[in-house]
Amino acid sequence: MEKPKHEPGKKPGKVFLIFAGLCVMALPFIVFAAITYESPSIVAAQAETALIGSQSLDFDQKGNAIFKNHDQTSKEYLEGISTERTLEAYYLLRQYPGSPPYVPHKVLETDGAEIECLTCHAKGGWSNELKGNTPVTPHPEQLSCRQCHVKMTVDSLFVETDWMSIMPPRLGRSHLPGAPPPIAHDLQARGNCIACHVGPGTVSAIRVDHPSRGNCRQCHVPDIHPGLFQRESAF
User: Fold this and answer.
1) Whose CA, among 127, 131, 135, 235, lies 20 to 30 Å from 218?
2) Which residue, among 41, 149, 151, has the nearest Cα to 107 in the 3D structure?
3) Which residues, listed in sequence order, are joined to residue 126 by a DSSP beta bridge?
4) Considering the entire predicted model, what is its pTM?
């Protein structure tokens, strides 16, 4: 029995209808994608804005204080040349590395003397009494200066002890040649890097040669435990 012949153009018409139906179904998705499309540059800018907006102003271990103090420091102070202060003189004012230095000059025993300390130590300057530049405090927000810094009254001990100070941190402990040296001390009360490493009152051995760079801890990280980590055996 002979099969019935399809009329010309009937099959292509069916294919066209199926294609048209698929286009109609996909049209809403195409329109939505066109409306919501954003170029890669816009997406990157939005991501950067969201990242900056989500950051805390107190990020990086009080890192915000570095920027704030750096912006408030004059160009003349940043570019000031160090005096003859040495590390030996620096440590002679301290019982051990990291301890508060004692006050090496006369102290006025008056009300509000703690705040008067910042008259010289907030921004530094030349001291006629000491014949040198006044060091800047790294924590000017701490107003009770005499709570930690005391005046030495005698040169000898009241009672003999076997006290032995710890060794000061060794400088230049870069892990790779030419790498930024790590921070060799704790950051408590010493988070303002430019107070000790920038300016004419700085110890020459630790004065940086790039004071214009504001974010110190972008390159320098704390390394107060330089020893290699060793896991204890369970056996």
Assistant:
1) 135
2) 151
3) 133
4) 0.61
Among 122, 117, 131, 129, smallest CA distance to 84 is for: 131
Coil/strand/helix, residue 222: strand
Nearest to 117, CA basis, from 97, 87, 141, 92: 141
Q: In angstroms, what is the C-alpha Rg of the chain?
A: 34
**What φ, ψ does residue 217 adopt, rounded to 5°?**
-85, 15
The encoded tokens of residue 206 equal 């630790």
Taking the C-alpha atoms of residue 220 and residue 163, their distance in angstroms, rounded to an integer, is 33
Helix (H/G/I), strand (E/B), else coil: 133: strand
**C-alpha span between 88 and 229 (Å, rounded):** 32
User: Would you say residue 4 has pLDDT above 70?
Assistant: no
- In whole angstroms, what is the distance from residue 196 CA to residue 187 CA? 12
Three-state SS for 134?
strand
Q: Report the pLDDT value the prediction gives residue 6, as an integer from 0 to 100.
A: 52
- Which long-range contacts (C-beta less than 8 Å, at least 24 apart) are formed by 167-171? 167/97, 168/87, 168/91, 168/97, 169/97, 169/224, 171/205, 171/206
- What amino acid is encoded at 231 in this protein? R
How far, in whole angstroms, is CA 113 from its chain's centroid?
31
Kindly state the helix (H) or strand (E) to which residue 125 belongs, with its residue range.
strand 125-127
Distance (Å, whole) CA 40 – CA 93: 58
Longest dimension (CA), the chain: 129
- Cβ neighbours of 215 (radius 10 Å): 13
Tokens representing residue 54 in the block: 């989500």
Rounded CA separation 95/98 (Å) = 9
